[in-house]
Design a protein that fits this description.
With 164 residues, the protein is mostly helical. The protein is built from 8 helices and 2 strands.
Length: 164
């Protein structure tokens, strides 16, 4: 049997594993707050991965294989996600005007509304962080995180990274 008091004495809160946990906790607090807000404004069925998928669809639409590549998942996994999003009214299928044999996935007005509300929600949450931490500290944190980002750009395949 593990004695929790002794474990806490052995594990120093400044150990290296704490940094990714704190970063993830901050990420979760933002995402969870955003999804509570989205649920109150017409999107109760939305899940965090859906935002990645809708971004992968893009403004001009995309084929399922392309969505899968953008997300870093198989075509089959992308197809399942598209089916779920289609069932919820966020995307629709349409023939590709350039190639009638191909089907493109497009955002519906409901999908666009979700992305707009998400963007507005992220802006509100960032403003809350700025009020809590101070605008200068938040800007410094963001700049520091950009410095530590080895790729220098956001990658849509983060959803695939989390799911294996």
């Amino acid at each position: 049997m593990v004695d929790e008091k002794k474990v806490n004495q052995v594990v120093d809160v400044r150990n290296g594993f704490e940094l990714p946990l704190l970063l993830f906790a901050g990420f979760r607090s933002i995402i969870d707050a955003l999804h509570r807000d989205l649920a109150e404004h017409g999107h109760p069925e939305t899940r965090p991965a859906y935002g990645f998928a809708l971004q992968a669809v893009g403004r001009d639409g995309a084929a399922i294989g392309e969505i899968g590549r953008r997300l870093g998942v198989s075509k089959q996994a992308a197809g399942k996600t598209v089916e779920k999003l289609e069932g919820l009214g966020y995307v629709e299928r349409a023939p590709d005007p350039a190639d009638g044999r191909r089907t493109l996935i497009h955002l519906t007005p409901h999908g666009v509304d979700l992305l707009i509300r998400s963007a507005e929600g992220f802006d509100r949450l960032r403003a809350e962080w700025a009020r809590t931490l101070g605008a200068d500290r938040l800007a410094a944190l963001e700049e520091d995180l950009r410095t530590m980002d080895p790729g220098g750009a956001f990658r849509l395949d983060a959803a695939g990274w989390f799911t294996g």
